[in-house]
Design brief:
The chain is an all-alpha fold and 375 residues long. It is built from 20 helices and no strands. The termini are far apart.
């Protein structure tokens, strides 16, 4: 049950939605192929292989270990881990990054005075909010990037104002919630980076970026991923391809849901409107109930125009805050913290409190940004 709730929530929910759509006849087997966005599924597949190459090379572990070894205060550690989490999330997605940074943070559990629940909470928030600056930072970003017809430049231009606000709010959170208390860095394992695997990671990531933002056909990085997978050997079995399955199931389940009568009565876009601010509110609200990835899928058909997609992008980005299921990264970060002996009540009390405040401030800031831009 814990695995289903924390690690496989999206798979369970998306599978239920897809099979219900097929069983009720709202989606026919003959149309499944046409509902798939093969480009997005392929890019997620390639990204998963690239990330596993980077993990197997110990490249990311080396980076985190170096940062941890240089900090001298709890507040400094918080700022350092926010920066590392933001940078890694922007290229590895938020979920994968938490698998890397949270276990390293938990090395401080034997250091007196370190409030681990606060450190992990700000890392989760940084992964959700600051990593969202790129199309591959969060899973829903890639979907909206493709659906909204963004270029890399226009995506950055749309996201940077809200990411800037998020960075300021997270910095204020660290200053007010985390003391300057001196800490002694724990001993960490020395990591020797495998140059072949690290080179494979950078090469495959470059092909992914070329396909996303340039003229490179998506079949090129897919073809490169096959020999790259051979470099992993048995390590390939440890790669988590679940996000590919989740998106494939959502491509079936969401159309089935949209064709149901109940959806039209409770469609948030109808309640708040189809303008940019209305989509912002719809995205933030729906994310609290079903998580931001399904929220993006459900609301995308109602969007018209670049500003509308920006509003929805802001809504599902801010919507990661607030509810524990606003983003699956929230549940994952908590699970990693608890697996290392953390206290659930302490974590959730702090996380939900600050996350709820951030949700309100981010939605208000996003609405102001959109209004200034004519939304």
């Amino acid at each position: 049950m814990r695995t289903l709730l924390f690690e496989r929530f999206l798979i369970t929910a998306s599978a239920t939605l897809a099979f219900s759509a097929l069983a009720m006849g709202r989606v026919h087997l003959s149309e499944v192929g046409s509902l798939m966005d093969w480009r997005i599924l392929t890019l997620f597949l390639v990204l998963t292989v690239a990330v596993e190459l980077g993990k197997a090379s110990d490249l990311f572990d080396r980076l985190v270990a170096v940062v941890i070894g240089r900090v001298r205060s709890m507040r400094g550690l918080a700022f350092a881990m926010i920066a590392v989490t933001a940078g890694l999330s922007a290229i590895l997605t938020n979920d994968v990054t938490l698998f890397l940074v949270v276990p390293f943070t938990m090395l401080f559990r034997g250091v007196e005075g370190v409030e681990l629940h606060k450190l992990v909470a700000v890392e989760v928030l940084a992964a959700n909010l600051l990593g969202a600056v790129t199309p591959i930072g969060n899973p829903q970003n890639l979907f909206l990037f493709a659906r909204g017809g963004f270029s890399f430049g226009s995506f950055l231009e749309a996201q940077l104002p809200l990411i800037g606000v998020s960075a300021v709010l997270l910095a204020a959170l660290v200053v007010f919630a985390i003391p300057r208390r001196l800490v002694t860095p724990p001993a960490t394992t020395a990591f020797d980076v495998d140059p072949v695997l690290a080179g494979g990671f950078f090469l495959l990531l470059a092909a992914e970026v070329g396909s996303l933002f340039g003229p490179l056909p998506y079949l090129v990085p897919l073809g490169m991923a096959l020999p790259a997978a051979l470099l992993l050997g048995r390590r390939l079995r440890e790669a988590d391809f679940s996000i590919v399955l989740v998106f494939a199931l959502l491509f079936i389940g969401i159309p089935g849901l949209e064709r149901g009568r109940l959806y039209h009565h409770f469609d948030p876009a109808r309640i708040f409107g189809h303008h940019a601010v209305g989509l912002l509110l719809s995205g933030a609200l729906l994310s609290q109930l079903v998580s931001n990835v399904p929220a993006a899928f459900l609301l995308a058909p109602a969007v018209t125009g670049a500003l509308g997609f920006q509003g929805l992008l802001y809504g599902v980005t801010a919507g990661a805050c607030g509810s524990p299921i606003g983003s699956i990264a929230n549940l994952l970060g908590a699970q990693l913290y608890l697996a290392e002996g953390g206290k659930p009540r302490v974590f959730w009390r702090f996380f939900c409190g600050v996350s709820g405040v951030l949700l309100i401030l981010l939605v208000a800031s996003a609405a102001l940004i959109l209004k200034l831009q004519g939304g």
